[in-house]
Predict the 3D structure of the following.
Amino acid sequence: MEELDFEVKLTSNSIDRCPGLKICINDSVYFSGEVLGENIVTFKASITDDFNLNISYAGNNPQDLILDDEGMPTNSVTVTIDSIKIEGVDITEIAYNYSKFKINKSQKYIDDYELTECMDLGLQGVWTLYVESPVYIWMLENL
């Protein structure tokens, strides 16, 4: 079993409202709430095997969006995953290269429901990074 320290830096383009966000290791929730401005979420997790680091984003409610003359939303809230550290090691580049953002299929007007190289969350979905154990070996192999 590995006891690991995690740090996830998130930035929202809103300071007064944000759809809900959860950070999980597999099914265990370590953060649940809003991201207003810049937030750094830190937590410890005991890991026994390979795991998924998941960030679930509730997405913008289409009924709340204000559209400009071209039909683009002017008030949508996005959350950016700025950095991810495990045991103080910055793995942001690994996260960018190997994560997937699976967009909820109920979102209309989306052609591709699974994005790679995506660190910006705006639509309802789950961002996932698969991490192998032992974590230090996985980090060395992928940095």
